[in-house]
Amino acid sequence: MIILAIFMLIFGVYLIYWTMYFRRMNKLTASLPEPLTLPLLGSAMNFMGNSEKMFQNIQELVNLAFQHKGCVKVWLGPKLYVAIANPEDAQVVLDNCLDKDKVYRFLRPWLGHGLFIAPVDLWKTHRKVLLPIFRNKIVEEYLDVISEQANILLERLEEKLDKGKFDVLKYITACTLDIVFETAMGERMDVQHKPDTPYLQARETVITIINKRLFKVWLQPDCLFNLTSYAKQQKDNIDLTHKFTDEVVQKKRFEYEKKINKESHVQSSGKLQAVLDLLFNREIEFTNEELREHIDSITIAGNDTTALVIAYTLVLLGVHQDAQQRVLQEQEAIFDKSKRGANREDLQRMSYLERVVKESMRLYAVVPIIARNIHEDIYLPVCETTLPAGTGAVIGAFAMHRSEAVWGPTANEFDPDRFLPERSVGRHPAAFIPFSYGSRNCIGRNFGMMIIKSILSTVLRSYQIEAQPINKLKMEMLLFPTEGHQIKISKR
Ligand code: HEM
């Protein structure tokens, strides 16, 4: 009897707490539109089904948001999310809320406290240390690695010459993996020649399971997830990837210690200094575990994103032959008929290609949403709403990049020249955010652009591309065309 009374009391207090919580959250955001919301579930049914269906549902939410100054609210079970697709409010959130939303917790077993999902206090000190390593002067040292891998990509693509359409992403991903691994860890993976290594398979499996968890509501609570076979599969494969990076970190630590003890006779000058080499002997003495978490975060965040941008750009250029012709003219003005790799000055001269890449990232924001935790009440000036602490703010980069309010009536059309300086005057700084915005933006953005331009330059100087427009998209952690990045290639 007493136990029942205690139980009822606890339940009663819990109910009062939630009723007050919901009331406050709903009151503060009362002016925002919301889709059909059911008790307990909220609008979770919008986030069920396959990733293509979900993309359509999200588009409907976006349309609802555009009817209300670019903001919409969505209850997912007990959690309130506000999705934002106008630059002014996005800027306020991205400038002030540096804490990642709880949804990123699914990456925690893999990336630990690596930069990508580090809690704010830790992130502040670690980002300061990592930032100088991604300066242009340092990443430009990696241009030789990029050209070498780009040439291997050309050789691999030869098997597809004049053979009809094929999905180019897998070729590009192998190339960017080789670049990112070698420059981050100083180790050659040679994925382009050996795509079936256990490490890569493990990495793929982990990404697949995390994607499933993100979008299947019933897999989200740990207690349910741990009952499924996915939990063990995830753990085994994460252990395998950790073991790989741990071994590289130990080897590098050994080399570093030998060097500082002056036991090494190996001259380090002239040898490529990978990101990992540069992380030793800094203001913070990182532990091996921290080094592994940072390197894993960099290789995960830097690879598929870069590969996707290249693949989308190739498809767009295959559709828009006039733009491809302009890119080629620019390339010939820089290289004449030479097939050499691009250097720093060459990359700076590729201004039209840069506009094409930006337009590709605008139309296909490969990181379509960015989710932040609102840690204290914050006012959104355009939506004229206070987001209460505890809300998740979802910045819809994909939606904002296609907003007619921002980009005009041609928002859905491919027009690289909209990035000409004279046509960019007056555009809000947070209107175009492929690399996010504010102090927690992408640390590898310049490096990413360098890889993208170099690879496109190499491929386009050798091959003519043809493609059909992309029809349907699906959303996983990143944005993919349902039918892949289909292109045809022929020799120039
Ligand atoms: C076109 C290619 C790329 C795109 C579109 C991209 C996009 C992004 C975005 C949108 C974020 C913020 C995510 C969020 O707040 O949820 C981010 C963060 C990050 N990116 Fe990139 N990225 C690219 C290339 C790279 C490269 C090449 C690297 C490194 C080699 C890299 C490393 C990182 C890291 C470490 C973070 C976390 C930064 C932090 O929290 O301080 N990215 N990236």
From TrEMBL:
Pfam entry (one): p450
Q: Which domain of life is it from?
A: Eukaryota
Q: How does it sit in the membrane?
A: Peripheral membrane protein
List locations, semicolon-separated.
Answer: Endoplasmic reticulum membrane; Microsome membrane
Annotated keywords:
Endoplasmic reticulum, Heme, Iron, Membrane, Metal-binding, Microsome, Monooxygenase, Oxidoreductase, Transmembrane, Transmembrane helix
In this chain, heme is annotated as bound at C442
- Listed GO MF terms: heme binding; iron ion binding; monooxygenase activity; oxidoreductase activity, acting on paired donors, with incorporation or reduction of molecular oxygen
Q: Which Gene3D superfamilies match?
A: Cytochrome P450 (1.10.630.10)
Entry similarity comment? Belongs to the cytochrome P450 family.
Purpose of the protein: May be involved in the metabolism of insect hormones and in the breakdown of synthetic insecticides.
Q: Supply the name of the protein.
A: Cytochrome P450 4c3-like
The protein's gene is named LOC113516305
